[in-house]
Amino acid sequence: MFADWLISPKNAWFTRNIANRAWSWFLGRGIVHEPDDFREDNPPVNPELLALLEQELIASRYDLKHLFRVILKSQTYQRSCQPASKDPKCETMFAFYPVRRLEPEVLIDAINQITGTTEKYVSRIPEPFTFIPQEKRSIELADASITSSFLDLFGRCPRNTGLESEQNTGLPSAPQELHLLNSSHIRNKLQEGAALRPLIQSTAKPRDMINELYLTILSRYPTEEELQIMSDYSQSPENRQRIGLDLAWALINSAEFQFRH
Q1: How far apart are CA 253 and CA 245, in angstroms?
Q2: pLDDT digits (tens, 9 = 90+) for 108-151
Q3: Lowest-pLDDT range, 36-40, 68-72, 202-206?
Q4: Which residue, among 82, 101, 105, has the nearest Cα to 255 in the 3D structure?
Q5: Residue 69 CA to chain centroid, in angstroms?
Q6: What is the rounded distance in angstroms from the CA atom of residue 84 to the CA atom of residue 53?
Q7: Is 79 found in the same domain as 134?
Q8: Same domain assignment for residues 10 and 74
Q9: CA Rg, the chain, in Å?
Q10: Which H or E run includes 101?
Q11: Does pTM top 0.85 for this prediction?
């Protein structure tokens, strides 16, 4: 059977490609780079590492979750995103974690989780259903036939060829930045989101609200400098809800929120 042959240890090409792609998903760069460019004159930068990942995948009977755990628990994955050297080999040898933009699906799911909102997705294909359940996350969408102006704008993979190079994760474009800054789509999520509204309308002290917003959006407490800036801003005559919305908007538009690092 084809499926049996495909995942056989004797078929080294399949195992090697999957291991390399998994590494590329998490580290932003394959051991063989580009991930789709497997050929004899494009060798892996670390053959021993690739061989180790291959063996882990085979030994686990092609359990991808096991392979993911091996990569995520490695010191390489947990390195700082700040290079310790300007040597160009640092990037190719994974000496630091590469800063890269969130995929469109991950970005909108994060915004929805923070605000307590959902997206409406419609499939051009009538099976199994035309309208996608609103509780379904973007990362769970079955294929690219499901329409989404946000995902299309932010460069989702069209899934036409199966190549990793189809995914557009370069620097944000002007239309993408303007959408996050000025669109009614994002503004309505901030103003009407069931998860965010109680936070910005609570009677807690302004400092507590600021701390909660930073923890909710950036998963960290604000620095003393950031606290001082927001404390000064909160002394303005604007109402409390406006201050909370402005801070949430600013944090969602920050590079810290939009990039993996």
Answers
A1: 12
A2: 999 999 999 999 887 776 665 667 777 888 888 877 778 888 98
A3: 202-206
A4: 101
A5: 18
A6: 26
A7: no
A8: yes
A9: 22
A10: strand 100-101
A11: no
Give the CB-side neighbour count of residue 65, counting CA atoms within 13 A: 0
Residue 195 Cα to chain centre, angstroms: 21
Residue 144, domain member (yes or no): yes
Distance CA 3, CA 18 (A): 15
Report which DSSP code applies to 106: H
H or E element, residue 5 = helix 2-6
Check if the beta carbon of residue 97 is closer than 8 Å to that of residue 81: yes
| The total number of residues written for the chain in this structure | 261
pLDDT value at residue 239: 66
What are 89's two structure tokens? 């080999």
Q: Is there a single domain that holds both residue 157 and residue 213?
A: no
34, with CB counted inside 10 A (0-12, 13-18, 19+), is middle
Q: Which two tokens stand for residue 215?
A: 């923890």
**Could you tell me which of 1, 35, 19, 17 has the C-alpha nearest to residue 169?**
35
Q: Give percent of the chain with pLDDT exceeding 90.
A: 39
User: What's the structural domain count of the chain?
Assistant: 3
Range of the domain at 222: 196-260
Helices (H) and strands (E) in the chain, counts: 14, 4
Q: Does residue 4 register a pLDDT over 60? A: yes
Query: Can you give the pLDDT at residue 250?
Result: 94
Each residue's pLDDT tens digit, 43-91: 999 999 999 999 999 999 889 999 999 999 999 999 988 888 888 888 8
* Rounded Cα–Cα distance for residues 122 and 137 (Å): 13
Pull the structure tokens for residue 145.
């036939």
Q: Provide the mean pLDDT of the chain.
A: 86
